[in-house]
């Protein structure tokens, strides 16, 4: 029963704005879309000081400053691309957690896909032709 | 005195390991060499004895705060509670390696004791030889570059630098030993594979023996990974439970291959096919364990976890890796053709499904490996710095996991050498129909995220598939069900564990709520139908830390207080290192998680606080525990019953 | 026999992997190359030590070092004597004072000596972000046109000067 209750609550979650009278968000936003954008983007960037934490999670001073910059830009209504560009312009592609799809990452993105297709073909052929493996 | 004795014990252990390797590898069935067969186990016992002695010596040094030993001085402190002083032994590079090699020798001892009963004495001796070689390599590594008994003389410090506060935690005490039991345990299957390739034969009995050893290793590894994830969640303070961190990936790689190995051992022991696969997977599982050891100790990858950043050590491990893995793969390349399997017809049989299962696991493993070392490759070749983070891994791993769940449902229902039983096909189609229907309802009526809906639907598909499998065997008659082997129930339990973990992952990933807020004393925050109130903030003194402890209350809206939570902001005195201790109210359906950030004003009454709502997060680890439980059942399953089972099912 | 070549794949893949790992040894994973190489230095207007406005234009025209420093930064103390020595030898060094207190900075330079031709005080740290700074100390090499040509992360040691910075600056002088 409790689970159904939780599920029901969760479903209405992303369509409503949770009003906070008593407590102020560290980074208050006007709309949940902006809030979501902020959370999404700061999770996609690497903290350069504590290099294995995202910008969202890190407590380092630089991370706080960078989060502030992101906050300002999200509030201004900038697009994902523009905001990320601000960071990569200054810190290079290393700051992105998701490697972009470009010439030097074709292998990275392509190899798993290639392996998968190869497996499909090899197994498929053997299943159809009933051969030994 | 004690450090020198400990050091000496290590050297003696090395000698024994070397002798074990030599006598094991040189033994054979030829007349003049049979005496080696008798002697090898003795060398294994000797190695274990002296390693245990050395390990206990190191522990003694920690407990007695002997700071003349560099390793103790760097990782302990007189204020450290005694149980952490004991666990600090494996808290850093040198000590953890000693534990690694001790565990390997313990496995060797078990092998010397049990394997001759499962297979022949000569096979067991050769296996011991392989294990001895690995021990020798690692002991050389320890003595050459990572000696825990080095002294800080003549000026030894009066006080130690303290154990890293992150490691001062019960969860962390258990995590490394469990992992090492797993990593090192795969060495047994590895050694069996080497011996099989060398001898050019891999019989069903071999696979049955390997199955037990691999199961035990696998279950420890699963437990270790589960513990690590759980620990990271409550200790690191930002609600994450898996970061695709290089060191985490290093533990996942052997796990994936180990799972594939377990399933392949089934095919060999039951049908005698896929022998080459099995030997290759066995080599791969342990190789990945070694690779993991390299990655975390050589400074090649950035990680929160990295043990050591010493290129000299890196070179040594790399050479070790090259010799062990390269040598075994070379053996595979030249001898694999000797392992012949009978012709098998595939089609939609269990063999095909297991083959598909293995392929998916191997692809997943390759993907994680690629993503982990890609930054390294790119940097080495073109000086470009790129990072590969969670989004990459999630995007590629999750679809593979879904495909695996798809197959998981039908695996137990499938049959060897034939397609599905005629009675089963309509049932399977109905089950599929039900699952699709549930998916559609979830997406369109309940408006869930499609990824969550898909995971739930697949979970139900697996449960239905397993139910059909049980029906096929027993028609649900109580008598028949009692006669199902423990191994069968173990399989069901482990598969259920996979489902539980998957559903937990999906729900917690999409439906967590995080609030980053400023709170003053008496402020309340409404979250997911709960009300979290900041009551008080008080200073507190621990054994070796000072802290500020917040008091929060938790209650359902308009209901009485159901829990008190005390997150802390600690400062460990030895090095002034700050650490936040989270407070969690947990049950099976959700966690409410509070972490104190920084004080926002001088009165100490206003704080930055992070509050999380994490639905079904416990399912993640519950699933892991179910997998472990399933494996334990399988280990204790009696062999005789297997032979009486219906060969068609 | 026909499957034999197949069996050699694992070994070959492994050797390739080993090679990659070997190449990776000894690299410092924390050092990032600047994202602004060959690009003009960021535009800024900041107060200098006399509280007068200082812009990047005043740093153009000479081959110079731009040193990011702060009084609260311990490693900066280690490199300071070397900076003084270089300044005496005629190397142009500009300073970017990162997230520091005005009075502290003045006191520091008075006590230890001032190697900088001019100092821009980035109290908020925003300009440093534009430069892609992620730690202190860092030192950039700029050319006559004001383009960034190199970034050194960490303490400016004698070795770093001799091996990395000096040769580059000499080359840039010729341009």
Helix content estimate of chain B: 55-70%
Mean pLDDT of chain B comes to: 88
Q: So how many helices of chain B?
A: 19
Gap from first CA to last CA of chain B: 63 Å
- Helix/strand/pairing class of chain B, anyone? alpha+beta
Beta strand % of chain A? under 5%
The biggest sheet of chain B amounts to: 6 strands, antiparallel
Corresponding CATH architecture of the largest domain in chain A: Orthogonal Bundle
| Beta-strand residue fraction of chain B | 5-15%
Question: How many beta-strand runs of chain B?
Answer: 10
Low-confidence stretches of chain B: 640-649
How many strands of chain A? Answer: 1
Secondary structure category of chain A: mainly alpha
- Please work out how many helical segments of chain A DSSP would assign: 5
Describe, in plain words, how this protein is organized in 3D:
The complex is a heterotrimer of chains A (133), B (649) and C (175). Chain A has two domains: 2-99, Orthogonal Bundle (Helicase, Ruva Protein, domain 3); 101-133. Helices cover 58% and strands 2% of the residues of chain A. Chain A has five helices and one strand; from the N terminus they run αβαααα. Chain A has helices spanning 2-13, 32-44, 61-76, 80-91, 106-129; one strand spanning 24-25. Residues 11-21 of chain A have low confidence and may be disordered. Chain B is α+β, with helices and mostly antiparallel strands. In chain B, 63% of the residues lie in helices and 12% in strands. Chain B contains 19 helices and ten strands. In chain B, the strands form two sheets. In chain B, strands 2, 3, 4, 5, 6 and 7 form a six-stranded antiparallel beta sheet that branches. In chain B, strand 9 (590-599) and strand 10 (606-615) form a beta hairpin. In chain B, helix 1 runs antiparallel to helix 6 (121-145), helix 6 crosses helix 7 and helix 10 packs antiparallel against helix 11 (311-335). Residues 640-649 of chain B have low confidence and may be disordered. By secondary structure, chain C is α/β, with parallel strands linked by helices. Chain C has a single domain, classed as Glutaredoxin, CATH 3.40.30.10. Chain C has five helices and seven strands. In chain C, the strands form two sheets. In chain C, strands 5-4-3-6-7 form a five-stranded mixed beta sheet. In chain C, strands 1-2 form a two-stranded antiparallel ribbon. The radius of gyration of chain C is 21 Å and the shape is elongated. Chain C starts with a helix and ends with a helix. The B-C interface holds B 276, 280, 283-284, 287, 294, 298-302, 311, 314-315, 318, 321-322, 325-326, 329-330, 332-334, 336-337, 373, 376-377, 379-381, 383, 385 and C 1, 3-4, 7-8, 10-11, 14-15, 17-18, 20-27, 29-30, 32-33.
């Amino acid at each position: 029963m409790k689970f159904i209750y939780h599920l029901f609550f969760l479903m209405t979650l992303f369509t409503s704005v949770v009003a906070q009278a008593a407590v102020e968000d560290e980074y208050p936003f006007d709309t949940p879309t902006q809030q979501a954008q902020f959370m999404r983007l700061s999770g996609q960037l690497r903290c350069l000081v504590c290099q294995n934490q995202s910008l969202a999670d890190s407590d380092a001073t630089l991370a706080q400053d960078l989060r502030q910059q992101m906050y300002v830009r999200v509030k201004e209504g900038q697009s994902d691309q523009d905001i990320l560009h601000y960071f990569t312009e200054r810190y290079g592609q290393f700051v992105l957690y998701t490697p972009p799809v470009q010439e030097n990452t074709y292998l990275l993105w392509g190899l798993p896909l290639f392996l998968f297709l190869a497996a499909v073909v090899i197994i498929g052929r053997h299943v159809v032709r009933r051969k030994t493996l | 005195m004690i450090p020198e004795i400990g050091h000496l014990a290590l050297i003696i252990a090395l000698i024994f390991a070397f002798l074990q390797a030599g006598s094991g590898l040189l033994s054979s069935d030829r007349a003049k060499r049979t005496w080696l067969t008798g002697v090898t186990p003795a060398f294994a016992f000797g190695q274990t004895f002296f390693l245990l002695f050395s390990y206990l010596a190191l522990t003694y040094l920690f407990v007695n705060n002997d700071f003349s030993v560099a390793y103790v001085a760097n990782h302990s402190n007189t204020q450290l509670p005694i149980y952490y002083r004991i666990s600090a032994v494996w808290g850093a590079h040198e000590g953890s390696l000693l534990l690694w090699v001790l565990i390997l020798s313990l496995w060797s001892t078990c092998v010397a004791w049990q394997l001759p009963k499962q297979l022949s004495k000569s096979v067991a001796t050769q296996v011991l030889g392989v294990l001895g070689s690995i021990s020798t390599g690692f002991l050389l590594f320890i003595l050459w570059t990572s000696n825990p008994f080095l002294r800080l003389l003549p000026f030894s410090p009066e006080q130690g630098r303290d154990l890293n506060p992150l490691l001062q935690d019960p969860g962390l005490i258990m995590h490394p030993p469990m992992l090492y039991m797993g990593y090192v345990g795969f060495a047994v299957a590895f050694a069996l594979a080497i011996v099989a390739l060398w001898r050019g034969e891999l019989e069903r009995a071999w696979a049955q023996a390997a199955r037990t050893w691999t199961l035990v290793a696998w279950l420890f590894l699963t437990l270790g990974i589960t513990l690590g994830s759980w620990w990271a969640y409550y200790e690191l303070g930002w609600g994450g439970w898996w970061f695709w961190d290089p060191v985490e990936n290093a533990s996942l790689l052997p796990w994936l291959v180990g799972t594939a190995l377990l399933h392949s051992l089934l095919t060999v022991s039951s049908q005698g096919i896929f022998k080459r696969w099995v030997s290759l997977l066995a080599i791969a599982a342990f190789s990945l364990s070694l690779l993991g050891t390299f990655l975390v100790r050589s400074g090649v990858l950035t990680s929160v976890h990295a043990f050591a950043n010493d290129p000299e050590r890196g070179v040594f491990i790399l050479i070790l890796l090259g010799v062990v893995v390269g040598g075994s793969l070379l053996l595979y390349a030249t001898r694999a053709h000797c392992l012949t399997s009978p012709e098998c017809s595939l089609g939609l049989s269990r063999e095909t499904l297991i083959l598909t299962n293995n392929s998916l696991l191997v692809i997943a493993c390759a993907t994680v490996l690629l993503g982990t070392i890609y930054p390294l490759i790119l940097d080495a070749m073109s000086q470009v710095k790129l990072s590969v983070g969670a989004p990459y891994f999630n995007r590629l791993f999750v679809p593979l996991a879904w495909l695996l769940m798809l197959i998981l449902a039908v695996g137990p229902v499938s049959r060897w050498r034939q397609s599905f039983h005629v009675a089963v096909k309509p049932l399977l189609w109905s089950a599929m129909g039900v699952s699709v229907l549930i998916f559609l309802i979830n997406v369109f009526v309940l408006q869930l995220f499609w990824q969550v809906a898909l995971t739930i639907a697949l979970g139900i598909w697996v449960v239905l598939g397993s139910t059909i499998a049980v029906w096929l065997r027993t028609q649900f008659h109580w008598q028949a069900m009692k006669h199902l082997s423990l191994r069968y129930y173990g399989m069901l339990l482990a598969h259920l564990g996979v489902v539980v973990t998957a559903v937990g992952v999906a729900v917690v990933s999409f439906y967590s709520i995080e609030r980053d807020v400023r709170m003053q004393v008496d402020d309340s925050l409404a979250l997911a139908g709960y009300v979290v109130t900041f009551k008080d903030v008080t200073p507190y003194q621990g054994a070796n830390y000072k802290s500020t402890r917040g008091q929060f209350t938790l209650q359902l809206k308009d209901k009485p207080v159901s829990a008190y939570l005390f997150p802390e902001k600690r400062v460990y005195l030895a090095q002034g290192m700050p650490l936040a201790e989270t407070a969690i109210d947990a049950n099976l359906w959700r966690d409410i998680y509070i972490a104190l950030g920084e004080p926002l004003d001088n009165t100490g009454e206003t704080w930055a606080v992070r509050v999380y709502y994490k639905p079904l997060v416990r399912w993640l680890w519950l699933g892991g525990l179910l997998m472990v439980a399933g494996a334990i059942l399988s280990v204790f399953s009696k062999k005789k019953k297997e032979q009486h089972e219906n060969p068609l099912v | 026999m026909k499957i034999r070549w197949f069996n050699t794949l694992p070994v070959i893949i492994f050797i390739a992997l080993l090679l990659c790992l070997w190449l990776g040894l000894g690299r410092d994973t924390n050092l990032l190359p600047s994202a602004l190489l060959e690009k003009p230095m960021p535009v800024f207007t900041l107060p200098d030590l006399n509280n007068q406005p200082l812009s990047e234009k005043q740093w153009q025209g000479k081959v110079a070092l731009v040193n990011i420093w702060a009084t609260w930064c311990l490693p900066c103390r280690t490199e300071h004597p070397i900076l003084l020595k270089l300044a005496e030898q005629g190397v142009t060094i500009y300073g970017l004072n990162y997230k520091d207190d005005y009075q502290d900075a003045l006191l520091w330079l008075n006590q230890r000596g001032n190697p900088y031709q001019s100092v821009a005080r980035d109290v908020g740290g925003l300009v440093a972000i534009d430069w892609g700074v992620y730690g202190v100390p860092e030192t950039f090499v700029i050319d006559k046109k004001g383009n960034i040509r190199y970034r050194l992360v960490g303490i400016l040691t004698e070795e770093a000067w001799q091996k990395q910075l000096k040769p580059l600056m000499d080359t840039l002088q010729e341009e």
